[in-house]
Design a protein that fits this description.
The protein is α/β, with parallel strands linked by helices. The protein has two domains: about 5-200, Formyl transferase, N-terminal domain (Rossmann fold); about 210-310, Roll (Methionyl-tRNA Fmet Formyltransferase, Chain A, domain 2), CATH 3.10.25.10. It has eight helices and 15 strands. It has helices at about 15-25, 50-60, 75-80, 100, 125-130, 165-190, 225-235, 305-310; strands at about 5-10, 30-35, 40, 45-50, 65, 85-90, 110, 135-140, 150-160, 240-245, 245-255, 265-270, 275-280, 285-295, 300. The strands form three sheets. It has a seven-stranded mixed beta sheet. Helix 4 (about 100) links the parallel strand 6 and strand 7. The longest helix has 25 residues, at about 165-190. The radius of gyration is 23 Å and the shape is elongated. The chain starts with a strand and ends in a 7-residue tail after the last helix.
Length: about 325
């Protein structure tokens, strides 16, 4: 049996399980991996390989790390020489120009972490959580030069649990993609799957996440909006309050949407379900009760431990 030859484009941890699934399939051969360049990470700025590169090296798959795909005849020639049937793209992080999209016989297939045409762009998982959505999913599309606008090959839905964060939801969607990708490529090559155009009038787009997006504004945001923000932006860029010119990261909190006895910004004292003293802040609507926090330059701690060590930080 002739194997399906695949070039895999991907970079972060989200793209590792689908790569592993394709590598393990007996009738699929991943002939090369294209990923972004190694980048400095952490306080020491140590040069670190992307997760997809690490996985490819474990499986002894050749790795290409071009600085750019545009106007890069060398990478175009290399990709043509691989004689791949399909290019599989998962969170690669760069736009594929038309001359690369045209190379594989059966085109380029992208796995996107939303129910397209909803949430086109680079942060669909965070966007779904920010909006308080109760479901999301993955969409496989035939790629075009326009971002996430290609015809749909397959959609699979995924429930969003109230406890899901960007970390857990991304893991679920990646695992779902890993399960479905091999069969999708088989059906594509066998020409037993039809692509359906997206309804572009229903398209919505993700905004680019910035560090300052994590700022909590209790005067403009409700407690429930802030909880959704914490779910979306933990661990990055993280959510934080500015108190006495210091950043206090809010890692875990709960909302009381019914609280309206105080003014936004007022500090609230009380007890949690176990009778332990706790601390809350009145928001534009409802109260935000802090559970786990981290003061800049310090370790993360429970709100009870934080209150014991920083008695004067808040005035309750």
């Amino acid at each position: 049996m002739e194997k399906i030859k695949v070039v895999y484009f991907g970079t972060p941890e989200f793209a590792v399980p689908p790569l592993a699934a394709l590598t393990e399939a007996e009738d699929i051969e991943v002939v090369a991996v294209v990923t972004q360049e190694d980048k400095p990470v952490g306080r020491k700025q140590e040069l670190t390989a992307p997760p997809v590169k690490k996985q490819a090296e474990l499986d002894m798959i050749p790795v290409l790390q071009p600085k750019s795909l545009r106007n890069n005849q060398e990478i175009v020639d290399l990709l043509k020489g691989l004689d791949a049937d399909v290019f599989a793209v998962v969170a690669y992080g760069k736009i594929l120009p038309q001359e690369i999209l045209d190379i594989p016989k059966y085109g380029c297939v992208n796995l996107h972490g939303s129910l397209l045409p909803q949430y086109r762009g680079a942060s669909p998982v965070e966007e779904a959580l920010l909006h308080g959505d109760t479901q999301t999913g993955i969409t496989f599309i035939k790629m075009t030069p326009e971002l996430d606008a290609g015809d749909i090959l397959l959609i699979q839905r995924q429930i969003i649990e109230p406890t899901d964060t960007s970390v857990t939801l991304r893991q679920k969607l990646s695992a779902l993609g890993a399960i479905l990708f091999p069969d999708l490529l088989r059906n594509l090559v066998d020409e037993t799957i039809s692509a359906i155009p997206q309804n572009h009038t229903n398209a919505t787009f993700c905004h680019k996440i910035r560090k300052e997006d994590g700022l909590i504004d209790v005067y403009k945001e409700s407690a429930e909006q802030i909880i959704n923000k914490i779910r979306a932006y933990t661990p990055w860029p993280s959510c934080y309050l500015l108190v006495k010119d210091k950043r206090l990261r809010v890692l875990e909190a709960v909302a009381d949407p019914t609280s309206n006895a105080a003014k936004p910004g007022d500090i609230l004292g009380g007890k949690d379900d176990q009778g332990k003293p706790t601390l809350g802040i009145q928001t534009q609507k409802g109260a935000l009760w802090l559970q786990k926090v981290q003061l800049e330059g310090k370790n993360a701690t429970s709100i009870q431990d934080f209150m014991r060590g920083n008695a004067s930080f808040f005035s309750v």
